[in-house]
Amino acid sequence: MERQGCLGDSELYDFVSDINLMEFHPKSTAGPKQLGDGAQSPMAYRSRFYNLSYVPGGHRETASFQGEHSEDGQPLHEPAPGDTSVYPYSPGPFPHTPPPPLTHAGRSKRRRVISVGQRQAANVRERKRMFSLNEAFDELRRKVPTFAYEKRLSRIETLRLAIIYITFMTDLLEST
DNA sequence: TAGGCCATCTGGTCCT
DNA sequence: AGGACCAGATGGCCTA
User: Fold this and answer.
1) What is the pTM of this model?
2) Is the CB of residue A25 inside 7 Å of nucleic acid strand C?
3) Does residue A137 contact residue A158 with C-beta atoms inside 8 Å?
C-alpha cells in the first residue's frame, strides 16, 4: 500500500502532533484525554483520535464503475424509442415512495411519469455520478497525509482530515 | 451480533 | 422534457 500524501515523516509527525492541540472531536469518545494511557506513539494517538483502527493491510477498494450493465450482466441502454411502458409506482420494497401529494382536484402535483427505460437510464446516470464522486474522494485521500499502515479513510474521515490539514497548513503559512 | 460504511435504487426538486 | 443533484431507504460486507 502506497504512502498517501507527500509529507516527510518529521513533517507528518509535526502535523499529527499539531492536531492534538486542535478542537476536533469526531464521533470517537477516545479524545485527547486518553493520550497518556498507552498511546505511546503519535500514530497510535492519532488512530485513537480519529477512531481509526490499526488494520495491517486492511483496505477496501472503492468499487469500480462496471459500465452500463444490469444486475444480470445485460448492458443497459437508453430507453428504446418505442418504450412507453410506465414505471410502476412504488415498485419495490422501498417504503420511501409515499403517495404523491394530491391537489384539490385529486390529481398529483407535478407528477413525472417515466418509462422503465428512462428509470434504468437515470439509474445508470446516478451510478456514474456517484462513481465520479468517489473518484474525487480517492483523489482527496491521496492528498491528505496518512500513515502507511492506516486503514483506508472513509469519506467522512477524509473530509474531516482534509479540513484539519488545510487549517494546519494555513496556520503554518501565516505563522511564517 | 451490532454498528459503520458503502453501493444502489428511487422519487422529488431545480435548472437548462 | 430531461438531466443533475439530493436525500431517504435498503441490503451487503466488514470489523470489533
Assistant:
1) 0.59
2) no
3) yes
